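Service request form, structural biology core

Requester: graduate student, group of Dr. S.
Request type: structure prediction, single chain
Budget code: on file
Notes: please return the result as structure tokens.

Sequence provided:
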Amino acid sequence: MGKEIQVLLVQEVKGLGKFGQTRSVALGYARNYLLPYQFAILATPSNQLRFKAIEKREGKRVEQEKVESETLAAALNGKKIQISSSAQENGSLYGSVSVLDIVGAIKSAHGIEVDRHWILLDDNIKEVGVFEVTISLPQGVTAGVALTVTAEVKEAKALKKSSK
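Core staff response, request fulfilled:
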């Protein structure tokens, strides 16, 4: 195996560790990825002091982000949104309701901006009905909204029936 060096993580890196942890990583991984993108700093004595300042600043940012997430969760919890989509008579949608549709519905109905990455859906919604959508906000805060998917009334069918 190649050379390894010690780094201090200044933010969470998936599969490696969380903020503040010291990890031993391959030299190339540190030099080409962790250090240039400022995910980590070298674990030297001088950087240990620098890290204390980063840690203090990060702690304040995390606290602020948590308060903002809790405020947003309070605004979102229990809200209801509705999306209309063209559907077959058996309730199956011709298309599907995606995360972007849900984000747009929340913004238009309640004026709240939600990042599309926060919406937790196993798969796009492909049928008419009522669904509970979980929103995973930063710092582990979650919220839930009720989504009602309704069948869109086709104008052509309505016109055809009214002319008979």
